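Colleagues,

Please find the record for the two-part complex below.
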Amino acid sequence: MTPANPAVDTVDIAALLERGRDMSAPVLRAAVDRLAPPMDTVAAYHFGWIDAQGRPADGDGGKAVRPALALLSAEAAGAAPEVGIPGAVAVELVHNFSLLHDDLMDGDEQRRHRDTVWKVHGPAQAILVGDALFALANELLLEIGTVEAGRATRRLTTATRKLIDGQAQDISFEHRDRVTVEECLEMEGNKTGALLACAVSIGAVLGGADERTADTLEAYGYHLGLAFQAVDDLLGIWGDPDATGKQTWSDLRQRKKSLPVVAALAAGGPASEKLGELLAADAGSNDVDTFSEEEFATRAALIEEAGGREWTSQEARRQHAVAIEALHGVDMPEKVRAELTALADFVVVRKR
Amino acid sequence: MTPANPAVDTVDIAALLERGRDMSAPVLRAAVDRLAPPMDTVAAYHFGWIDAQGRPADGDGGKAVRPALALLSAEAAGAAPEVGIPGAVAVELVHNFSLLHDDLMDGDEQRRHRDTVWKVHGPAQAILVGDALFALANELLLEIGTVEAGRATRRLTTATRKLIDGQAQDISFEHRDRVTVEECLEMEGNKTGALLACAVSIGAVLGGADERTADTLEAYGYHLGLAFQAVDDLLGIWGDPDATGKQTWSDLRQRKKSLPVVAALAAGGPASEKLGELLAADAGSNDVDTFSEEEFATRAALIEEAGGREWTSQEARRQHAVAIEALHGVDMPEKVRAELTALADFVVVRKR
C-alpha cells in the first residue's frame, strides 16, 4: 500500500484510535449507567468493564475503529471532533446490540477472549440488553433535539436495518449448499459496510454537513467496511488465535460461507472441486465439531490452493482503493483526509 | 362504571377499534413488506396474515386498542385522524417487537391461539424479526423528516426503553420469593403503561401538539395502561380460555407474580399465609408443570380468599378514574374526549 499523500505516513494510528476511545468512553459509560439493573451490569460485562463476578476489569474494548471514524467525520465537515461524540457512542451501542444478539443466534461462546453474554448471563439477558442498547442509541441522538440529530438518527436506523438484513442473510447462507460471491459481498456490505458507513457520516451530519457530503462519506465507509470484512474473513481462517481471540480455523469450525470459501468454490479446478465435495459431506454430518486440527488444515489448504485466499486478499485491496477514491469526492481539511486514508490502510494490514 | 358524559354512551367502540385497524393495516403491511426474506414471512406469520405453512390466514390481530388511540390522539390535537397513522403503525411495530422477544425469553409457546414465532421459526428468527420491527418503527417515523416526527420518535424511544426495563423487572421477579405491590405496579407501568401512553401522545405530537399537551395525554394513557394490565392480570388467572386464547390458570402455570398474587401475599391473614407457603414450595419444585386443574384451582381460590382478586379489580377502577381525570387537563373536541372515555371504559370491562 503506497499512499499517494505523503502526509499519510506521518499519521499516528494508535493515537487516532485512542482519541476515539478516550473521548467516547465516558459518554458510553454514562449511557450504559442509565440502564436499570441488572441490565447495567450485564452491559458492563459485555463491554469488558467488569468480569463475570462483577469485579472491575480492564477488558479489551475492541479496535475502536468506529469511534475514531465518527470523530474524524465531524472534522471532515469542519466541526470540532467533540461534535461527533454522540454519534460515535450511538454507533458503538448499535454495534454492540448486534454483537449481543448475533452471538446468541450463532451460538458463539467466546468474544474478545471472554465468554459471551448469553453464556454467562443467559439468553434472556443477551436479548434484553441488546434491545436496551439499541434503544439507548436512538435516545442519545434524539435527546440532542436538533434537526441534524433527527437526520443522524435516520441514517443510524437505516444502517441498523441493513445490519439486521445482513445477519438474516448470513443465517440463511448456513442452510444453503452454495452461495455466490455476489451474495456474500451483499451480505458483508449489509453486515459490516452499512454501520461503518454510518460511523463516517454521522459526525458530519451532526456537524451540519449536507446530504451529498454525508452520502459520499458513507461511500468511503461502506467500501472500507467491505475491505475490513475481507480481512476479517482471512483472519477467521488463517488468523493467529493469540491475536484474534478466536479459536484456530474459527470460521471453518462454524462452517461459515465467508469470502475465501465462496471464492474458492466459485474458482473451479481440482482443488475447488475437492473442497466442494468435502464441505458438502461436512454439511450433512455432525462430525465437524470433533474434527482434528489436521482436518481443518486440509480444508484451509484447499481453499488456498483454489485461490480463495489470494482472491480475498485482492478484494480487500480493491475495496480499499474504492474507499480512498470516494474520499476525494468530499472537500475536507487535508489533515483529516490523510487520517481517513491512514485508517483505511490500517484496516487492511491489521492482524486482529 | 357510570360515565359523567352522556355522549360516552353513544360511542361505538367496535367501530373505533375497527377504524384504527383498517386505517393502519395497509401501512403496517407495506412496512413489513420492506423486510428482507425470510423476515417478511416470519413477521407475516406473527401478525396472523399467513399460517405456519405460508398459506393466507385471517388471523386475530389482537384488540387493536393502540392504533385506535393513536388516531384519536391526532384528533385530540385538532388534526385529522390520518395524521396519526404512522404513529399508530410505529407503536404497533414496537409492541410486536416486544411480543416476539418476550415470548422467547419467557418460553411462551402460544399467543392468540397460535404457536409463537420462536416455536415455529426458531429462536434466531424471533430475535431477528423483533429487532427488524423495532428498527422499522423508527424508520417509519423518521422518514417523515419533520421536527414533529423527531419528537414523536423520541417519545417512542423513551417508551421502548421503559418497556425493556419492565421486561427486565418481570424476569427478575420470577427469581425472587417476594415482590411488593409497589414493585409490581412499577413493572406494569413500564411494561404496559409506557407504550399505551405513547400511543395516546404520538398522534397529537405528529399533529403539532405542544409538549405539555402530549404529557397530559400520556398521563391518561399511562393510567389506562395500568387499568388494562390489572384486567389482564385478572384474566390471566380467571379468564375464559376460549376468550383469552390462553390456557386455564395461565399466569399461575407460569408462576407469574402478577397483581392478584402479590396483593394476596401482602394482605396477611390465614389464606394469605397458606398461599405464601404453597407458592414458596412450588418455587422450589419442578412439579408445577404437572399440576392438575385442582391444584391450580386451590391456589386461585386462596388468592381470591386473601382478597387479591377484589383488590386488583378495585385497582383497575382506581387507575381508570385517574386516566379519566387526566383527560380533563387537555383542551380537545368533546367528541374525542367522549371516545377516549368510552375506550377507557371498554378496557376495564373486556373479557379478552
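The radius of gyration of chain B is 20 Å.

Comments are welcome before we finalize the supplementary table.
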